[in-house]
């Protein structure tokens, strides 16, 4: 048997190696919730929620108080019937990061019970993936220096945060390109530009001979028409992040032909909606990237297994654990430079 007999929440605090600066936000650390499920056969499964008020409207204190509710909701369910847990937690519209943690913990417990890795339970499509590493907003000199260090460390994909000052962002792209020629760039404005500014930025960068693989969330989340405007007037593919939480958001984006890419983050959608989004985007002949919030290694582990299992993603932004001070690496994967692999 594999029935759930206990649910435990634990608060985990982490500090960033350096302040993480994006549009309108500078973070020094994060407080996450580790979810532990215990089965009647002794097996345990783990998930992690990394709440974001900016993206999801979540507060960690409110999520932590839901421990008894979650315990009462899923106690006694056999993890072999994990779809039942998915259906129950799908009702948690206001707490998607906690939904993700619970759903993954159920899969993890099932994995321990059966000795089958989660990525194989989800399809086993790939054996390895490659993540980018992020350059946050800073003075020009520091941005260029950090990008060069990332590239020399073997990361072929670099994510660059922009959106607070268009001209400085163009200069940063120019400087970063000069020290990282051969790298691929994912540029993320985190809703910082107007549609016209986003087009101006992309055309100026293009005129410098710099290619951007994905231009992520250039405008505010609710401006679907603005996303579409940028998509049809920019030389670079456009992705939705903050605009794409649930499968219903993604359906609207597909209908409106607003983007080329959807950035799935398990903290926005949970496992269940993420699985649906993968199939929707594939059916629409669009593209996918996979991102993270501020997960530690045990949280990024969820996304690694999801990606390896589905094999659906062109780009991976799974570097939060590389930016956090974490005493013990706890992911069920190996980090080999930019590569992430599950070894049997």
Structure description:
With 344 residues, the protein is of the alpha/beta class. It folds into two domains: 4-116, Enolase-like, N-terminal domain (Enolase-like, domain 1, 2-Layer Sandwich); 121-341, TIM Barrel. Helices cover 42% and strands 24% of the residues. It is built from 14 helices and 15 strands. It has helices at residues 53-56, 60-64, 67-74, 82-89, 96-114, 118-121, 140-152, 166-179, 195-207, 224-233, 247-255, 266-283, 297-310, 320-323; strands spanning 4-22, 25-39, 44-49, 128-130, 133-135, 157-161, 184-188, 214-216, 238-240, 261-265, 287-291, 315-316, 324-325, 334-336, 339-341. An eight-stranded parallel sheet has the order 5-6-7-8-9-10-11-12. Helix 4 packs antiparallel against helix 5 (96-114) and helix 7 packs parallel to helix 8. It is globular and about 60 Å long. The two termini are 24 Å apart. The mean pLDDT is 97.
Note the topology.
Elements lengths: L3 E19 L2 E15 L4 E6 L3 H4 L3 H5 L2 H8 L7 H8 L6 H19 L3 H4 L6 E3 L2 E3 L4 H13 L4 E5 L4 H14 L4 E5 L6 H13 L6 E3 L7 H10 L4 E3 L6 H9 L5 E5 H18 L3 E5 L5 H14 L4 E2 L3 H4 E2 L8 E3 L2 E3 L3
Parallel strand pairs: 5-6, 6-7, 7-8, 8-9, 9-10, 10-11, 11-12
Antiparallel strand pairs: 1-2, 1-13, 2-3, 4-15, 14-15
CATH superfamily of the largest domain: Enolase-like C-terminal domain
Share of β-strand residues: 15-25%
> Main sheet: which strands, in order across?
5-6-7-8-9-10-11-12
Order of helices and strands: EEEHHHHHHEEHEHEHEHEHEHEHEHEEE
The quaternary state of the protein chains shown equals single chain
Query: Which stretches are low in confidence, meaning pLDDT under 50 for 5 or more residues running?
Result: none
Number of helices: 14
Total beta strands = 15
How much helical structure, as a percent, in the residues? Answer: 40-55%
């Amino acid at each position: 048997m594999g029935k759930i007999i206990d649910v435990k929440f634990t608060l985990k605090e982490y500090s960033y190696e350096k302040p993480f600066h994006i549009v309108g936000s500078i973070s020094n650390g994060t407080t996450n919730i580790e979810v532990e499920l215990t089965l009647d056969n002794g097996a345990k499964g783990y998930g992690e929620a990394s709440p974001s008020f900016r993206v999801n409207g979540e507060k960690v204190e409110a999520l932590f108080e839901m421990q008894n509710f979650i315990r009462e909701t899923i106690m006694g369910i056999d993890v072999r019937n994990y779809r039942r847990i998915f259906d129950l937690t799908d009702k948690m519209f206001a707490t998607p990061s906690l939904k993700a943690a619970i759903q993954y913990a159920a899969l993890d417990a099932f994995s321990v019970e059966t000795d089958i890795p989660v990525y194989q339970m989800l399809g086993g499509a790939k054996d390895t993936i490659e993540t980018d590493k992020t350059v946050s907003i800073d003075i020009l000199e520091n941005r260029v220096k950090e990008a060069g260090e990332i590239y020399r460390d073997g990361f072929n994909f670099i994510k660059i945060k922009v959106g607070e000052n268009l001209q400085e962002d163009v200069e940063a792209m120019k400087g970063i390109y000069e020290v990282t020629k051969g790298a691929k760039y994912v540029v993320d404005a985190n809703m910082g530009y107007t549609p016209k500014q986003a087009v101006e930025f992309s055309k100026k960068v293009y005129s410098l001979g710099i290619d951007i693989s994905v231009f992520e969330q250039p405008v505010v989340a609710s401006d679907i028409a603005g996303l579409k405007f940028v998509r049809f007037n920019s030389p670079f593919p456009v992705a939705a992040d903050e605009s794409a939480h649930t499968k219903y958001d993604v359906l609207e984006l597909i209908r409106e032909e607003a983007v080329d890419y959807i950035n799935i983050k398990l903290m926005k959608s949970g496992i269940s909606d993420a699985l649906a989004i993968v199939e929707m985007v594939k059916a629409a002949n669009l593209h996918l990237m996979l991102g993270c919030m501020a997960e530690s290694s045990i949280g990024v582990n969820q996304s690694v297994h999801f990606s390896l299992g589905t094999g659906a993603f062109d780009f991976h932004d799974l570097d939060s654990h590389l930016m956090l001070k974490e005493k013990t690496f706890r992911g069920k994967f190996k980090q080999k430079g930019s590569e992430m692999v599950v070894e049997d």
